[in-house]
Amino acid sequence: MRFEELLDGRVYDLGHPLNRDTPIWPSHPPFFMTLSNRHGDVPDPADCGYGSANEIIVTSGHHSTHIDSLAHISSYGQLYGDVQAATVQMGVGQRRGFVSHGVDKIAPIVRRGILLDVAAVKGKEHLDPAQRVTDEDLIEAATAHEVTVGPGDCVLIRTGWSAFFGDKEVYIGQQGGLPGPDISAAKWLVSQGVFLSGSDTLPYEWRHPDVPGMPVHQELIAKNGIHIVESLNLEQLSEDRVYEFLFIALPLRITGATGSPIRPVAIV
Questions:
Q1: Whose CA is closest to 135, among 223, 235, 216?
Q2: Which residue has the higher pLDDT, 3 or 204?
Q3: d(CA 253, CA 249)
Q4: What span, in angstroms and rounded, lies between the C-alpha atoms of 56 and 251?
Q5: Kindly report the CA angle at 100 between 98 and 101, in degrees rounded to 5?
Q6: What is the largest distance, in Å, between two alpha-carbon atoms of the chain?
Q7: How far apart are CA 197 and CA 224, in angstroms?
Q8: Left, alpha or beta for 106 (phi > 0: left; psi -120 to 50: alpha)?
Q9: Distance CA 23, CA 30 (A)
Q10: Could you tell me which residues come within 8 angstroms of residue 174 by beta carbon, excluding any fewer than 6 positions away?
Q11: Cα 185–Cα 120–Cα 5 angle in degrees, nearest 5
């Protein structure tokens, strides 16, 4: 792809906004933003007309559209690469983050992106609560979209769940669970050598109220070092039937953090 083609290409914004109304997983702190200084709050003794405003932001690294670092998930106390989580948590007892596996270790992401629109392939506006997305579903979608998933790809899975972004209880699965990839889908993604996978749900994976834990997170992040992106907005890609694109995402370099809000884009 030449530079001129990039300039002429269409840019799809795949992120949701960050505000106090954005759904967030119950174990994460809520988002807070307020103006610390408003225009007119700071005196202008020189009467030069200069004014400014700024804000204070308090947020989890896992608010709205975000990426999980490899520090986010452990399996029986071990992070990816058989690293004991307890040995890399900075200032144990002081909660200062991770000396390795943090989100600051993720390089800017500029890779081939693939949309697997499972909801559309199944003829649905959105999947049902607690509906599994299996390896066969992903293969079926890839075949229908005439794309091949390969090493280093960023695979984005659409369930249609963005339709409920404005309803917190439904969106986070408190009413019947969430659709998403199950362990068979996770293992298939691993077998294809993907770099990252994301979905339009919070969190990324099949969830049922009676089933504990997050085995898909463990399989992808802790066991195989594959990053997860959650709460994507994939509706415009789906509407335009765009299944292959340049995927760009830039995690914030928050030292030792387990995640970061991102504003990913697809360029076609």
A1: 216
A2: 204
A3: 12
A4: 20
A5: 95
A6: 69
A7: 12
A8: beta
A9: 9
A10: none
A11: 90
Q: Which domains does the chain have, with CATH numbers?
A: 3-17+65-267 (3.50.30.50)
In this structure, the chain runs to a length of 268
Please state, in angstroms and as integers, the Cα–Cα distance from residue 237 to each residue in 7, 177, 212, 259, following that order: 19, 25, 32, 25
Of 142, 123, 127, 144, nearest to 189 by C-alpha is 142
Work out whether strand 78-79 and strand 109-117 pair parallel, antiparallel, or are unpaired: unpaired
- Looking at the chain, the whole-number percentage of residues with pLDDT higher than 70 is 96
> Which pLDDT value is given to residue 51?
87
Q: Give the span between the Cα atoms of 133 and 198, in whole angstroms.
A: 13
Could you write out the DSSP letters of every residue in 16-39?
---STTS---TTSPPPEEEEEE-T
Name 196's Cβ contacts closer than 8 Å, sequence gap at least 6. Answer: 67, 109, 111, 154, 155, 226, 227, 228, 229
Q: By C-alpha distance, which of 175, 238, 163, 237 is closest to 201?
A: 163
Q: Six-digit token pair at 86?
A: 């307890």
Q: What is the pLDDT of residue 8?
A: 77
CB of 196 within 8 A of CB of 229?
yes
pLDDT confidence bin for 210, thresholds 50/70/90: confident
The predicted-structure confidence for 94-111, as pLDDT tens digits, reads as follows 668 999 999 999 999 999
